[in-house]
Amino acid sequence: MHVNPFKDAGEAQGDGMRRYRETFAEVEALGAQVRRARRQADLSLKRVNAVPEPHSVGNAVFAVELERHRADRETMFEAMRKLDAARRALRAIASDFVLDQDKTAAADLRRPA
To answer: Which domain of life is it from (predicted)?
Structure first.
């Protein structure tokens, strides 16, 4: 993020700060989950490629390994979708902070010296 939401955070932003921290932690955890799922999908693909020829559904070992890989891949894609949603939520929270800071800056300009 290019915005420091902690800068000039007042008491009114306390709830927003809590949401930001929780969402940031969720993004970090989901990122780790995506990395684990990607490693698992890579390993299952290697197992599929290591199965002796022929690589067709007639080969029972190949069919089982291919199905495992498809399941691992779907798990990875689901984790990626969750990560994208969490990142969008984090961006929305951060943009709220920017808007609040812009409103505060504009109000400061209107105050008499």
So the answer is: Bacteria
